[in-house]
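Morning. Coffee machine broken again, so started the prediction first thing and wrote up yesterday's gels while waiting. Chain of 192 residues, entered below exactly as on the submission form.
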Amino acid sequence: MFYKDERLALFIDGANLYAAAKSLGFDIDYKLLRSEFMRRGKLLRAFYYTALLENDEYSPIRPLVDWLNYNGFTMVTKPAKEYTDSMGRRKVKGNMDIELAVNAMELAPHVDHIVLFSGDGDFRPLVESLQRQGVRVSVVSTIRSQPPMIADELRRQADNFIELEDLKDVIGRPPREPMADAPARDYEQSDS
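Came back before lunch.
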């Protein structure tokens, strides 16, 4: 489904891809991911979207964000909002959908193929609009988790669905153990 001479751009919904890979029992090796898509076409940009806690003494995502920033990824971040849920757990809210959609629309005239790493059904209208502009759109997520991580309407809209588990041997690595002194937090995406 890829052509060697096509201009590619990757759009990675960080929280969504992390959750999908975690549900399948592996971590993403972003160096291998970038190399794999450079092999598949002319990779123009690889965007990674995530919300970050500000003024936090330790953020588990900070080392990844720093590494990606120095290794060929365009980082798009914004401050996350932290709150305590009804069960007393600390949660973090941060939705990057608008930023991803705006960047994809801006880049559309310069690419042939966009690879969206997300299963979020909110991206279906974006995919449809990109297709009307002549851009092919592949979506990477999983149907093999319980429940499936990709919305059915997004999978139907995409030109190509790539099962994340099928990429495990190419871009995956065994999950790392969480650091013992790192605070445990649940990251979620919401509409605020």
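The mean pLDDT is 89. Going to sketch it on the whiteboard this afternoon.
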